[in-house]
User: Fold this.
Amino acid sequence: MEMMIRGRRNRRTPAIRGLVRETRLHAEDLILPVFFHEDETDVEIASMPGCTRWSVKSLVAEVESAWAAGIRAVVLFPKIEESLKSQNAMECANPNGLVPNVIRAIKSACPGMCVITDVALDPYNSDGHDGIVVRDGDDLKILNDETVEVLCRQALCHAQAGADIVAPSDMMDGRIGAIRMALDEADFTETGIMAYTAKYASAFYGPFRGALDSAPKEGDKKTYQMDPGNVREAVRELLMDEEEGADVVMVKPAGPYLDVIARLRDETTLPIAAYQVSGEYLMIKSACAGGWLDEKAVVMESLLGIKRAGADMILTYFAKDVAGWLAEG
Ligand code: PBG
Assistant:
């Protein structure tokens, strides 16, 4: 056959494939989400096999071991005792609460680790919603502006404890600008904001809510999280978050929303984070536990796809495993 062009020439050997490879994963791209509680025991999370809800002491050891594996960023998810939950979620801004204590403990054991905190009320809220809830007859209403005020206090509390980046995951309107101003007024001009810009009302968060016992007691999150059918709306959220001072914008979930990542990549010069969420983790884990898929290969491919779509960094429960695999070469 006479052909001027043969695509396979560039795939012939591992060395050539290495030269033409367009996307690569690095441990530095990854952010490890970690779960913890006030208890002194470590509890395996039934809904997320391979993940643990740590005591504070074990969490610090886990963060040190992630650092040794090459991970440079963690994001904190607390399980708050039921007795500390309230309707106005006041505990979220307690300077001696679980999260500020953990930030300080991680920073003193592992000062180079970038500590990112989740800013949202759901772990602290007796209603299990990301914002403050009021009843309106049979309906629940999530109060936007009142919630934003509390989120500002929560973000400031995290910054004061030493968080490098705060990550509002609540999807209230105007929170990025309000948090930026609150941080700046208190002289925390160097604390970054990673905005959950396009956070969809996804069924893939199920296992996470099991891990933290943080599912809404009533209703769903569809009045604040985005409709899975929308992508133009993600661009609109992006424009607002950019204008309000976000340092990083996020798409969540990642795998089922690769087109959203790619679209935002075209529309912004900001770094993009993508969150491979608990349901995506669980799907891979369960298929691999059955021996049906090769875990290492599938995890790497899933993350490579997310990066290829345009993500600069990925939040993934596989972060530590991946760092280990990458080091093996
Ligand atoms: C809550 C929050 C959620 C996740 C991260 N922050 C759950 C939700 O919005 O209901 C989900 C993460 C995951 O599923 O891995 N603000």
